[in-house]
Design brief:
6-stranded parallel sheet; 344 residues; alpha/beta; globular
């Protein structure tokens, strides 16, 4: 099929914040290949604040199957909406039966998806296999396979997330930085989507970071994670700020962009930090499906720690593993390296 000089392209990723961030290089590659294309993304409502700050997109479409778009009526409303935009192609970065059928019934002629499912065959959608992730690559590179399949092979180097000047000023006001004091974020929660440290370990680390670097500690998270922030901040004598439950996603993005460094497990804010060019120190599980080889943040300013013995004593708990093989001292040393001030 001959491709239009300025195609109308829909990228589909109805997934978590971190997954959406790792899809942003696809948008950059498509925009570089077709500077005048109409480029839109279909995603879950809670990721809109991320996508609104991406410079490549012309439009964002939300899909909310549990609420506004639930049931057959909601499904067909989405099909009618997509039909009105007359897309030439759709790239489905997260394979779901709902969205493969949606783009098929919307009449989008060129459709490419991930995986090998029966619904791909039924809808005559081209599918790309990840071959059981062997060899293992980064998630963003797996996503870029779909861009390469439509001849968008190079990225343009645009920022993945841009924060406006007004947002930056507001974030600086919230953080209330003092001259010469590093501001270190700690995001202790992750929705139990990946192995993670205990709040007590994060608290012990925060105390070390204040003792060694005089750091101001900023704890972020949802309202449900306020108890984690309390367990951390209550151990501190130096400057500390809990922002759990106080920020919208857009405000969180701006705050992360003003940090000197973020410490966390493998979670959405870690990926936001990477896309914003903020240094990170992250605790990771070594198992391939959860490893930094696949899930490290973008940006090249990351330092990722694994249990030195390969697995933790609690590894059999899956996402409930507490990464007990990674010590507080290990993370403290890593933070020092990232700050350019390693402890002796």
């Amino acid at each position: 099929m001959e491709q239009a000089k300025s195609p109308r392209i829909l990228v589909v990723r109805p997934d978590h914040i971190g997954d959406v961030v790792l899809s942003l290089p696809v948008l950059d590659a498509l925009r570089h290949r077709w500077p005048e294309a109409y480029l839109a993304m279909l995603a879950r409502p809670y990721t809109r604040d991320v996508l609104e700050r991406n410079p490549c997109l012309d439009a964002i479409f939300e899909d909310d199957p549990e609420d506004r778009h639930r049931g057959l009526a909601g499904f067909y409303r989405q099909i009618r909406l997509l039909r009105t935009h007359r897309f030439d192609m759709a790239l489905v970065l997260m394979p779901t039966m709902r969205h493969v059928w949606m783009i098929f019934l919307a009449g989008i002629p060129r459709r490419i998806s991930v995986g090998r499912k029966v619904y791909h065959a039924l809808t005559r959608t081209r599918s790309l296999s990840r071959h059981r992730y062997i060899p293992l690559r980064h998630e963003s590179d797996f996503c870029l396979d779909l861009a390469r399949a439509v001849d968008a092979r190079e990225q343009g180097g645009r920022p993945l997330i841009e924060v406006g000047e007004e947002e930056k000023l507001k974030a600086r006001s919230v953080l209330n930085r003092a001259e010469g004091i590093p501001v270190i974020g700690i995001h202790p929660g992750n929705g139990r989507n990946a192995p993670n440290w205990t709040a007590e370990r994060y608290g012990a680390l925060a105390r070390i970071l204040q003792d060694r670097h005089g750091a101001k500690i900023v704890v972020t998270g949802s309202d449900e994670e306020a108890h984690l922030a309390e367990a951390i901040v209550s151990r501190l004598d130096g400057p500390a700020l809990s922002l759990t439950g106080k920020l919208s996603l857009g405000e969180l993005i701006a705050v992360i962009g003003e940090l000197d460094l973020l410490v966390s497990s493998s979670t959405g804010p870690m990926h936001l930090a990477g896309a914003l060019g903020v240094s990170t120190v992250s605790v990771f599980c070594p198992l391939p499906a959860r490893s930094p080889q696949r899930w490290r943040p973008l940006g090249g300013r990351d330092l990722n720690l694994l249990p030195p013995d390969g697995q933790c004593p609690t590894c059999d708990r899956g996402p409930f593993c507490d990464l007990s093989g990674i010590t507080v001292d290990m993370v403290g040393e890593a933070v020092g390296k990232q700050l350019g001030n390693p402890s002796v």
